Structures are given as C-alpha cells and as structure tokens.
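Batch manifest, entry 17 of 40.
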Amino acid sequence: MKPKHILLAYSGGLDTSAGLHFLKQHFDCKVTAYCADLGQKEDWARIHERALAAGADQFVLADLKETFIRDFVFPALKANARYERTYLLGTPLARPAIVQGLVGYARDHGVNVLAHGCTQKGNDQVRFELAAQSLAPELRTVAPWRMWSLKSREDLLEYCERHRVPLEHSAGDLLSHDENLAHRTTEGGYLEHVENPFRWEHAAWITPPTAAPDRVETVRVTYREGVPVAVNGDELGPVELVRRLNEIGGRNGVGLQDIVENRINGLKVRGIFENPALVLLHTSHEHLEKVTLGRNVERLRNLLTDDYGDVVYRGLWFSEERRVMQALIDASQRFVSGDVWVDLYKGSHRATRVASERSLYSRDLVTLHRGEDIRGEDATGFLNTISMRVRLEATRKG
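Output type: structure tokens
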C-alpha cells in the first residue's frame, strides 16, 4: 500500500529530522510533521522551520501537557509505578500520550500511515507501535531506521549535512536527550561506558548537591483520592503542580537517577534521569498511603505495582491488563487524601510529617502513655487464637 499521507511523530532532533527527509524522498507523498508539546523546553519556531526545511508539507504543534500529566502520569503515580523498582517511567508514560494525539489527528485529516524515528535497538519502537495498533489497527506504521542503510548517529549527521537539513547537533555531541514535563533523559556518549561517572555539567534541571542551598527547604504536597492537587497550600492544575515541584526539587539537588535498566529486548542500557517532581510525588504519595491504606488493601495494591510498571515500560498502556489493574488501583485510592511535608537538603529528601482526616492511625490505641486500653483478657484470647497453628505444628514434629 503506497502511503498517501504520512504523519510523523516529530521531535525536531537528529533522528526525526533525518527520518522526515528520508520519508519525503522515499515515498514522494504528503508528510506532516506532528510535534507533541509535553512540556519540553524547545524553540518551537525554530523546530517548525527545521521541519519545513527537511521536507515537511505541514507542521502541527499539539499541546498535550495537560492530558499527559492528568491521564498518564497521575494514574501511574497512584500505583507507585516503577520499572525494576527504580525507574519512574517518564518516557514510557509519554509515548502513549503522543500516540493518542497522533491517532486523533490522523483520523481527522485523512492520514493512512504513521511514522516514528525510533531506532531498531530501543524500547520506543515497541511502545509506539503497540499503542498505535491498540488505538488504530487500520493504520500502517513505517520506521526509517528499519528501512535505510544508515547505522549510527554519525551516519545521520553526515546524511543531514549532505541534504542540508539544519540541525543543532555536531559530530562531537554524542549525547542523546529525551525531555518532557516529567523528566529529562541523557544517554549515549561517555555514559555508554558504565565505569564513567555522570558529569554534573550535563545536568539541565538539577543543581549539583554541592552547589545547592545550605539550608533545609520543606515542601507540602496535598492529595485528594491519590491525586496531587496543591503545593504549599496553593491549589494548582496538573501542569503547574509538576512544574512547581521540578523547580523546588531541582534547586535543592533532588531528583537525579543514574540507572542501568534491562530493555524490552533484554539488553542493558544506562540512562541519567532528571525527574525532581516525580521523585517528590512518589515519596509523598507512599508516605500518605502508610496512614490511609489498610494493611490488606495496601498489600493487594502492592502485588500489582511491579506488574503495572512492567506493562507500562513494555508499551502496553492501552492493554486490557493495564485497564483492569487501574480499576483496582483507583479503588484503593478512595481514602488517600491529606498533606505530606518533605524536607529537601543538598540532594537528599525525606518525608517528615503527614496529616489526613482519612487516617487509620490512632494514637489512643497504640500509645505507650495514657490512652484507650486493650484489656488483658482480649490480648490473651488473641494470642491463644493466633498461636493454635504454631502449637499444632510443634506437636506434629514431636
């Protein structure tokens, strides 16, 4: 099927700029560059010019910040979702948000082929194509990286130079970045050697801890039913709330992760993640749950946390299993409302206080001082009951 109209997920970077030019030359059809604004700090006018110079017939800038945070980041936060118990999923949560926007545009504008600039080595090709097939199985997807003879970033730079595709990259800049409102990733270059430490001059959001203020800053995060709604008493929308926490965490050196993860294909990759807001949200959310969730509800939800993180990481946001897990997780958050105070100091952070009208914590019942008594005979009966199984096992052993 010859494409009539290709819609390319366009970032303005090296891969998608080379890919845009290639698609236009290879298929000789209409190509629209679709740029998703997820809160990354970009010069959109310059990216627009670059897309047209690379051959785009049309440039679209879609503001997806609100839906990204509200409909993807916050539902995953309710699950305390991580991949391999460390990675806070800033990129895997962004990809389905982008594809949802792409599919909506495609159906409204006669697009019959989707395209992306993901490499054949990485995870994003899986996330993009599984999301696209879940939402629009009738649309075909093409990927330049699986079609052309180019093998490396150096090859792409040479290709763009030869075809006069304007870039801001240079042969000496081998680091690769992915950014949205929730996080910034740095990969490649010297970081591919795991014996090399991260160089703080390459941090964009986070102040090095040694240069952070020499004082403790306390931030208060307010939740309603598992969703953050305010910072330091100021009610904020999802986008502004994440921005505010990024600023607070970043200036205090909080939120940098250096992670070696296992890709979907089983190969290991190293990434540097700057995600101050996500770190502060996970810490405060988990702390609030400790006083608002019953033991068995928390245990049941925790049974899903690792699987939820795996499902999101592997590109299955729109799958039935994620929807089913989300229903239980959402139900678990009914009473997760209140305030959490977090202290930040030179790269460290710690939840120190919590207050909730939905708390299950009762000082009167657990106090070592004067409070509501548990009668001695009640404790004796309780101990006799829970020890029955132990006594039976001991008797059987002889």
